[in-house]
Design goal:
Helix content is 28%, strand content 29%. With 173 residues, the protein is α+β, with helices and mostly antiparallel strands. The strands form two sheets. Strands 3-4-5-6-7 form a five-stranded mixed β-sheet, with helices on both faces. The chain has a two-stranded antiparallel ribbon with strand order 1-2.
Length: 173
C-alpha cells in the first residue's frame, strides 16, 4: 500500500501522486507538449500571476513558433507515470552584450503543488542544466517571483543573485 501525497485535477484527468511514484525529467519539443501543458499553464497563472483582471493569460503561440523554428527554445518536462506535472521553458540566444556567450533566459517554470517538496525543483533544474550544456549554452539566467519566492532553490543550485527587476502596470491611454 502506498501513501498518498496529493491529488490534482489536470483538466479532465485526475491522478493521485504517491510516495512510490517516480518523477521523470526529459527534454521535449515545445509544440509536442503544448496542448498537454495548457491546463497546467492555467493552474500556473492562477497560482502566481499578479494583476489578473488587467493582464489575462494569452500566450503568443506564433512568437513561440518563431523561437522554436530558430532553435531558440529549450523545454524540459516533469512527468509522473507519463502525466505532465511540470515544465521549464528557456529562451536561447547569443548574449546581446556578450555575443560570444550562448545564454539561456528562463521564460517560465512550474511544478504542480502535489509534486513539490520531493526535490522536484532541484531535479528539474539539474535536468535543465544538463540539456542546456548539451546545447552548448554557457550562461543561464533564472528568476523568482518575490511573492512566491523560490530563490532558495536557485541558491542551492549555485546560482548567484545579480539583479532585481521591478514592474509597474500602466493605465491604458
Amino acid at each position: 500500500m502506498s501513501s498518498q501525497i496529493g491529488t490534482a485535477d489536470m483538466g479532465a484527468v485526475r491522478f493521485a501522486v504517491t510516495s512510490m511514484d517516480r518523477i521523470s525529467f526529459q527534454a521535449e519539443a515545445f509544440f509536442d507538449v503544448i496542448e498537454e501543458a495548457k491546463p497546467l499553464l492555467q493552474r500556473h497563472w492562477e497560482e502566481i500571476a499578479l494583476d489578473k483582471a488587467s493582464v489575462p493569460l494569452d500566450p503568443d503561440w506564433d512568437r513561440y513558433r518563431e523561437f522554436d523554428k530558430k532553435n531558440g527554445l529549450s523545454v524540459v518536462t516533469a512527468r509522473v507515470n507519463g502525466e505532465l506535472v511540470g515544465y521549464c521553458c528557456m529562451i536561447l540566444s547569443m548574449g546581446l552584450h556578450y555575443k560570444t556567450t550562448p545564454e539561456a533566459i528562463m521564460d517560465i517554470f512550474w511544478l504542480a503543488p502535489e509534486v513539490r517538496g520531493r526535490m522536484g525543483g532541484v531535479r528539474l533544474f539539474r535536468a535543465v542544466e544538463k540539456e542546456l550544456q548539451r546545447l552548448g549554452i554557457r550562461r543561464v539566467n533564472v528568476g523568482s517571483k518575490l511573492h512566491k519566492d523560490v530563490s532558495r532553490l536557485f541558491l542551492a543550485l549555485g546560482y548567484q543573485p545579480i539583479e532585481m527587476w521591478f514592474s509597474k502596470l500602466l493605465e491604458a491611454p
